[in-house]
Amino acid sequence: MGWEKTIKHLSTLALVDVDMSRVGSLARDLEKIVEMFNKIAELNIPEEVEPLYTTFFGEINVGEDNELESMGIGELDPSGKRLESGYLKSPKTL
Asked: What does the radius of gyration of the chain's CA atoms come to, in whole angstroms?
């Protein structure tokens, strides 16, 4: 398989720079990943087996909600130095 072209394409999609001297190492890693998916595909798992994960698009399979009391602003900033009009100030991020 032409891994160099695939690795370049994946690095472009992931917006990362890849040192092309590592293509051999990355190609071996990709081969292992593809082999693992092929082994999983060969398992022929019955439809009745529930997955151990949930997806955004499927039904959510989680436990019941437990209502807890939230922290008050006084617990977040006991000194009150970062409070402004009842809100907790945070550093500017942009």
From this structure: 24
